[in-house]
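Please fill in the sequence for the structure shown.

STRUCTURE ENCODING:
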């Protein structure tokens, strides 16, 4: 898991983007 240096950062950004998109779709 600690193979890449920016793995956790990328994961957080991806999770945030997915949550935001899902929230927008739900609101709409």
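FILLED IN BY: designer on duty
SEQUENCE:
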């Amino acid at each position: 898991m600690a193979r890449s240096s920016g793995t956790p950062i990328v994961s957080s950004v991806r999770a945030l983007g997915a949550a935001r998109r899902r929230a927008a779709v739900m609101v709409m």
